[in-house]
Amino acid sequence: MYHTKVKRITTIASSEGGMSSSEPGLPPQIQINTGMGPCALLNEFFEQVPEAIVFVDGRRRVVRANQEFVRMFGYAPEEIIGTLLSSLIVPPDLRDEADQLTASMSQTETVCSESVCVRKGGQRFETHLLEGPLCISGQVAFKYIVFREIADREQIGNAQAEPERDRLEHVFHERDRLRLLLDLNNRVAAHCGLRQVFQAISSELRRLFKCECVGLALPDASDETLRQHLIDFPEGKGHFKEGTIFPVEGSAAGLAYRRTKAVVLNSFSEVKANWNSEAFRTFSTIVQKEGTESGCFLPLMSEGRALGVLQLISRREYAFAGQDVEFLDQVANQIAITLKNALKYDEVTAANSRLAEAEERSRNESLALREQIERTSMFEDIVGSSPALRSVLSQVGKVAPSDSTVLILGETGTGKELIARAIHKRSMRAKRAFIAVNCSAIPPSLIASELFGHEKGAFTGATQRRLGRFEAADGGTIFLDEVGDVPPEIQVALLRVLQEREIERVGSDKPIPVQLRVVAATHRDLNQLVAEGKFRQDLLYRLNVVPINVPSLRERTEDIPLLVEYFVDRYGKKSGKKFKTIDRETLKLFQEYNWPGNIRELQNVIERAVILSEEDTFLVDETWLKREQPEVAGPTGALNGALLKQEKEMIEAALADSCGCISGPMGAATKLKLPRATLEAKIKRLGIDKYRFKVQPSK
């Protein structure tokens, strides 16, 4: 027979009991430099082991053989690699039987046998043979075969069986250790997570060192306690688990952490006296309840400091020897690399999370602030139902869906920005930004930078590039309030934006395209400004595509009761007051008043009355509305300081000279150099009948 004796051992890699007395012995232990890396250690072991070893692929062709195999069978290395194994070592008359037996073997079993082999010169000899799978990442990649020549069968008796079995078990134990280091090294190189690496090696560590528990403890922020971060304790009683906290002072893991050196305790019962009883109590309680007797604790070192502690704990005394610590130091070094990477990853993840939360919080606060601004500025609703207001809203509804430029005209305080926002909210750009710019509030020297932005170093103080309002409004709507106050040099740039839809930052000649809608507003007479040379006529044509005239409060007095009710309710809620009724005399007074400040003035009067009111009926002190309103100064100062009589005479003279015409190049407003709206207010306040001048023109 080819195989005279066969013993199968299923998955010998997980066996703890070694092999039977029939298995062969090996020479004394192999001396390997433990300071080498995992791959180098494996190669060194393969070449030094005093047994012939060969690796074969799935077709039984040799992929690698060590020096002892070359010596035993007499072949040169180049004759071996790639050759069918049976053609090298099996006598020709026994090959059929050998092939049949090989075909019947399981790919996952480890088999011990005694076989007849043949050397290159034809000499037959008997060998002990051990064959098993070589797995990589859990899959059978090759098979290994170990040969040991039987020199004199009778010399190997029962007296030598036990030592030989122990030696063979030691060889496989060293192989498993090297395989573990190699696998650990590969996982660290692949940047696997800490938990993933721990789970991959913990069960193998428990098997190799015949211990019941493998754990990983990390220090808390205080550095005074250790927290059990990971643990593999299948037979644990639940007293030692993830999240368990124990003091650094008074625990074996803490001792290793503080000393930054491995600590081996072979008998927990003998070391209780080494710690203060109070500090040792937590650790001692866990030890007693779990029934553990010995442990090996290794600091995870990185850049000279301990990041944590690797723990191996056994229910047997003296379970860890000195050589175990040398090997476990290598394991701890690899885990320390993974732990360091994991901690840095956690720091980056936490920083990104904080940044994302801050951005989200800022975005939410911005939205809330925008909503608050809209509410406090009455931008949510337009209050009123007068024909004059309905006419304006009809125009808004028609122009909003288009992308045309809109020019909003009206006195100060009539709600021009409210109309502009209504146009934006009903347009196709409603989901994008609405940027409002008060052109009269920006100093002339800064308006170009404010509107179009600037490059770094464009002027003194320009320490970084800044985006202007037009770029901020890209895709949305920009509202240019008081556009009549824009300086001439900026008017040229505005004309280019309206014509070419592109801007240039201050300090740059590179055009930047912008896609936005322009809505402008003014309380001034732009035609008069054009006539005076203060406003470009071509810019007026570009702005005045769709003009909308917002009526003054004097022209929509029927809306005053609704506005009063709206503001009283709004400011009442803000002040924590509730009014049951509104005084009728107050409403009558409001409707008879001229309101030169329009809705803004009405809003301020109501807010003051709400604050000062102590009754549940809203009313206003009559004297507030009888006070002489300040006049709007004209550009020439012709009316400044004049008495009312002189003022009335001057206006009547201008009306007579213009045949009762107020606006236009030959109108009274032009002659007096006053805005049309201002002149209208003065005519009404002074009680001048402007119509009588139409039939009696000045001679």
UniProtKB/TrEMBL annotation:
Residues 42-108 form the PAS domain. The keyword Methyltransferase does not apply. InterPro entries: AAA+_ATPase, AAA_lid_NorR, GAF, GAF-like_dom_sf, P-loop_NTPase, PAS, PAS-like_dom_sf, PAS_fold. The lineage of its organism: Bacteria, Pseudomonadati, Acidobacteriota, Terriglobia, Terriglobales. Pfam families: AAA_lid_14, GAF, PAS, Sigma54_activat. PANTHER family: PTS-DEPENDENT DIHYDROXYACETONE KINASE OPERON REGULATORY PROTEIN-RELATED, TRANSCRIPTIONAL REGULATORY PROTEIN. This is Fis family NifA subfamily transcriptional regulator. Residues 382-611 form the Sigma-54 factor interaction domain. GO terms for molecular function: ATP binding; DNA binding. SMART domains: AAA, GAF, PAS. NCBIfam families: sensory_box. It comes from Edaphobacter modestus. It comes from the Bacteria. The keyword Nucleotide-binding applies. GO terms for biological process: regulation of DNA-templated transcription. Keywords: Activator, ATP-binding, DNA-binding, Nucleotide-binding, Transcription, Transcription regulation.
